[in-house]
């Protein structure tokens, strides 16, 4: 293997799977960059080169870039990190003369668009910290492309599968709690599900496609399903009784009522995580209290979810199919079945 | 060695990683008299100096071979793969040793360490902090006293995301030599089982998710007489974190982090009894380990956990790895479907 690929964000859901596939599939020698060693347990199962790399630190990025031929930039975080970190990765890639950078963006860069949203749609800031910072990161990619760096941008839709916190684990836990879920009428929007291995396939193709340089591609699954269809299928696959649904007023009230709790918990965890963990481990009463709060937060939808599950936007992959040769291989039924096996293996259900 | 003090150091803390800063040094600061006599040792001298400054320690050294002869005791907190060689050096130099768990990677190493300590006439203790938990000590007395009857089944689950603020990558890659959660959390669990049962249970099967590196999920099946034992460990996700011991007379249930209490339900029915282990003033068990070692240095009495007692669990861990099978992971085995 002459190819050596640096994967940033290797401690995360998508970066972790990329490391697995690239190493086990003998695609390339992999350097897995993790922000902290505490996130390395998944990729640590493979005999790959793991480096600690805070992409906000240019010296870390330069060190990680040594002898690298290509880069897949999956790392994400705060808006500042998404901007500064991406700049550091692109600058270091240019300086190191890497052959290609694949940057993982998101369909959120299209804002609240509806209908069939292809790559010709303008990028729209909405005030969402994540989506807006990814727009800034894409602008950086264009700027570095002008300076001679070969960059390909992928815009994945709703990526689910093993290790997916937002779209797999959290839903499974919420369903398992037995708490009434959102009324079905709020979940008739398009889900845009893409199984993680399909995204990995798109990355592999983007790394080697001749016509991809400087282009951006939607990455979505093959089926156009609703959120309701996804929720029901996942719930069934993990062997739970049929979903119960809350009333419209109750759903709205509980979402609003829990907002201050959600914000306070986030704030406390950000500033006092070690102390909270120490108390959690030492006192049973603290564990019961924390689990109660965590359960309530997990079971209750946020106001943003009402909007998300109702949107009727679809992100076609015609361009990726034409230029990259992308063909999603995992229909929802199969992706969910694999996810359910994984959830059981890890005792989430 | 660099020093600014006239007091000759008598205790060395070897390894200045996360366990040193999170556990040993805070515990040692409770013994003000020891800090001037402490030397911090790490091949990353900057790290040693930073910790020395943070905790008010005056002596630092770049290698355990550089510490002065006045050092009588050594706390070994280096990566697991180095426990054997560093401890052996210290024992040969006539120093009492408190070693982080796991004591060694192989049974033959552990036995050599025990033998060397005996030859040198010094103590070799191991930091198996759970043996200091009053709850765990009480569980042992209940099992051995027959309160639960004949044991029929034991289940231990311990899963929590790996959140150790490691300062190096020694848990992964070549440094870890393919030893992950079993050598980490499993070292505690298998040691407790051997200690509670009074002997090493027989290995039935062992499987983990290693793909050539450090396993993050492990399942161990053991048997002790008529008792089947199931151990599930994870670095990736949270489990129930429960110890459940079923006997012909009663079933005991204890949280993995509950260091004071557990519940016992009699087999014939009736109320579940919550037992609180007898304990003096509320003391962090981790503090007890360092307190114990300092007392050993002063009095020469046997330590809380002598190395000779942990050899069976070291042998069991080694046996697990030698019979390692891969857990079924169909979500991993989809590579043939991808454009490699």
**Weakly predicted, low-confidence segments of chain B:** none
The percentage helix of chain A is 40-55%
- What is the percentage of strand-forming residues of chain B? 15-25%
- Subunit organisation of the chains: heterodimer
CATH architecture of the domain at 4-160 and 191-228 and 311-329 in chain A: 3-Layer(aba) Sandwich
The overall strand count of chain A is 11
Rounded mean pLDDT score of chain B: 92
The interface involving the most residues is between: A-B, 46 and 52 residues
Largest sheet, strands/sense/barrel of chain B: 9 strands, mixed
**How many separate helices of chain B?**
8
- Using only C-alpha atoms, the radius of gyration of chain A works out to 20 Å
What does this structure look like?
Chain A is built from 13 helices and eleven strands. In chain A, the strands form three sheets. In chain A, strands 3-2-1-4-5-7-10 form a seven-stranded parallel sheet, sandwiched between helices. In chain A, helix 3 (79-96) runs parallel beside helix 4 (129-146), helix 7 crosses helix 13 (332-345) and helix 9 packs antiparallel against helix 10. With 349 residues, chain A is of the alpha/beta class. Helix content of chain A is 48%, strand content 13%. Chain B has 340 residues and is of the alpha/beta class. Chain B has eight helices and 15 strands. The radius of gyration of chain B is 21 Å and the shape is globular. Chains A and B meet through helix 1, strand 3, helix 6, helix 9 and helix 13 of A and loops of B.
């Amino acid at each position: 293997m002459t190819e050596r690929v640096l994967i940033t964000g290797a401690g995360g859901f998508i970066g972790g799977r990329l490391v697995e596939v690239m190493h086990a599939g003998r695609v390339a020698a992999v350097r897995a960059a993790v922000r902290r060693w505490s996130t390395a347990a998944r990729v640590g199962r493979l005999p790959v080169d793991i480096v600690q790399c805070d992409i906000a630190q240019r010296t870390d990025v330069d060190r990680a870039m040594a002898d690298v031929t290509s880069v897949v930039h999956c790392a994400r975080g705060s808006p500042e990190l998404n901007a500064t970190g991406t700049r550091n990765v692109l600058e270091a890639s240019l300086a190191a003369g890497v052959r290609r950078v694949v940057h993982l963006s998101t369909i959120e860069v299209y804002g609240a668009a509806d209908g069939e949203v292809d790559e010709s749609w303008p990028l729209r800031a909405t005030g969402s910290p994540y989506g807006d910072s990814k727009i800034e990161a894409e602008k950086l990619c264009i700027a570095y492309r002008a300076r001679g760096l070969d960059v390909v941008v992928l815009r994945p839709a709703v990526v689910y599968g093993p290790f997916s916190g937002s779209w797999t684990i959290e839903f499974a836990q919420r369903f398992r709690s037995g708490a009434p879920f959102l009324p079905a009428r709020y979940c008739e929007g398009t889900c845009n599900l893409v199984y993680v291995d399909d995204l990995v396939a798109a990355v592999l193709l983007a790394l080697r496609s001749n016509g991809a340089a400087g282009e951006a591609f939607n990455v979505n699954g093959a089926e156009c399903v609703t959120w309701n269809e996804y929720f029901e299928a996942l719930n069934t696959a993990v062997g739970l009784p049929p979903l119960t649904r809350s009333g419209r007023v109750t759903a709205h009230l509980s979402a609003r009522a829990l907002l201050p709790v959600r914000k306070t918990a986030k704030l406390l965890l950000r500033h006092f995580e070690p102390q909270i963990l120490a108390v959690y481990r030492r006192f049973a009463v603290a564990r019961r209290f924390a689990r109660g709060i965590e359960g309530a937060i997990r079971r209750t939808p946020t106001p943003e979810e009402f909007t998300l599950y109702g949107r009727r936007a679809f992100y076609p992959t015609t361009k990726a199919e034409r230029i990259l040769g992308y063909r999603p291989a995992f229909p929802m039924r199969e992706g969910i079945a694999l996810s359910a096996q994984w959830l059981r293996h890890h005792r989430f259900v | 060695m660099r020093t600014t003090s006239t007091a000759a150091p008598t205790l060395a803390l070897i390894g200045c990683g996360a366990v040193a800063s999170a556990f040993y040094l805070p515990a040692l600061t409770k013994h003000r008299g020891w800090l001037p006599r402490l030397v911090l040792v790490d091949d990353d001298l900057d790290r040693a100096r930073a910790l020395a400054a943070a905790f008010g320690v005056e002596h630092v050294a770049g290698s355990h071979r550089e510490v002065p002869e006045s050092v009588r005791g050594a706390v070994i907190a280096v990566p697991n793969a180095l426990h054997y060689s560093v401890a052996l050096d210290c024992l040969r130099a006539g120093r009492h040793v408190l070693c982080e768990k796991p004591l060694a990677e192989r049974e033959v190493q552990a036995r050599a360490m025990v033998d060397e300590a005996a030859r040198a006439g010094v103590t070799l203790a191991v930091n198996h902090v759970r043996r200091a938990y009053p709850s765990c000590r009480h569980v042992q007395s209940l099992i051995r006293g027959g309160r639960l009857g004949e044991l029929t089944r034991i289940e231990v689950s311990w899963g929590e995301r790996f959140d150790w603020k490691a300062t190096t990558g020694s848990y992964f890659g070549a440094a870890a030599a393919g030893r992950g959660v079993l050598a980490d959390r499993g070292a505690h669990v298998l040691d407790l089982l051997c200690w509670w049962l009074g002997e090493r249970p027989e290995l039935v099967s062992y499987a983990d998710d290693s793909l050539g590196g450090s396993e993050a999920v492990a399942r161990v099946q053991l048997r002790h007489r008529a008792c089947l034992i199931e151990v599930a460990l994870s670095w990736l996700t949270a489990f129930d974190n429960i110890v459940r011991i079923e006997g012909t007379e009663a079933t005991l249930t204890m949280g993995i982090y509950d260091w004071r209490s557990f519940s016992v339900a009699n087999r014939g029915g009736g109320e579940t009894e919550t037992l609180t282990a007898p304990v003096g003033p509320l003391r962090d068990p981790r503090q007890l380990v360092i307190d114990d070692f300092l007392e050993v240095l002063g009095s020469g009495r046997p330590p809380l956990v002598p190395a000779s007692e942990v050899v069976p669990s070291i042998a069991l861990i080694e046996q697990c790895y030698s019979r390692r099978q891969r857990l079924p992971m169909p979500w991993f085995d989809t590579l043939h479907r991808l454009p490699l």
